[in-house]
Amino acid sequence: MRPERFLAADADRRQLLLVVVVVAVGLVLGTVVTGRYLWFLRDPDAIRTVVDGFGPLAPLVFVLLQTLQVVVAPVPGQVLAFAAGYLFGAGPGFAYSMTGATVGTYLALLLARRYGRPYVERVVAPDALDRFDDFLGEYGLAGVFVVFLLPGFPDDVICFAAGMSDLDVRKLVLVSVAGRTPGYLVLVFSGAGMAQEQVYQSVGLLVAAGCVGIALFWKREIVLRRLATAKNR
Fold it and tell me: Which H or E run includes 114?
């Protein structure tokens, strides 16, 4: 979803419904394809052989890739979190994913703070950046938390936008960890389950998490207001 659609109060619910349908169909087809045809994706030994090609550097390479996805965003971080669970198991996969994402967030914040708006506008579309300026001014850290909490939403963009604000960098990093944790846990456990050929359990976990995410998005303004109110108490 584009950043401006997340921020828009009048986000088209038909558009959201279409996204839900597409994701649901994709999950069903993905389960069939993975279970019946792409047999090599269900062979953890074959996949891990590729990862093991990096030897003891494999975790470090993965952390670096997760870091770079925040700063330059070649692939979605959620995809890498799922892959981490598949390749390394739930516990190590979560640790590697969260470490890389947190370091990447810190670097994005520092880059935005050091080089300012001219640099950020080369990374983020100016119209989306303008909306995030207003968004951060209204909701502050509470808004940052909600963006990180909802998987698939523009958390990389908020890193750069928040870096130009007067919000404390350490608090922003802590909020990013808190917001990412639920989604990353779901993804790494799903990936680990897929590696153990627990296909339907993994898909069921993703579907359940997706339903929660959709509900949060639908009521995002209520969530934001309550978090902002709690922060000001």
Answer: helix 90-123
Whole-angstrom distance, CA of residue 35 vs CA of residue 165:
47
pLDDT at residue 80 tops 70: yes
- How far apart are alpha carbons 132 and 166 in whole angstroms? 14
Is-contact 231 142, C-beta < 8 A?
yes
Residue 231 CB: number of other CB atoms within 10 A? 12
With a cut of 50, say whether residue 2 has pLDDT above it. Answer: no
Tens-digit pLDDT profile for residues 144-190: 888 888 766 667 888 888 998 888 999 999 999 999 999 899 889 98
Rounded distance between C-alpha atoms, residue 69 and residue 92, angstroms: 19
User: CB–CB of 150/184 below 8 Å?
Assistant: no
For residue 66, CA distances in Å to 14, 58, 69, 161 come to 33, 12, 5, 20
Token output for 93 = 């996969």
Residue 219 phi/psi, 5-degree rounding, is -110, 25
Residue 87 structure tokens: 């390749």
Q: CB within 8 A of 145, min separation 6: which ones? A: 175, 178, 179, 227
Distance CA 94, CA 102 (A): 12
**Rounded to two decimals, what is the model's pTM?**
0.73
Query: Which residue, among 157, 124, 162, 111, has the nearest Cα to 140 in the 3D structure?
Result: 162
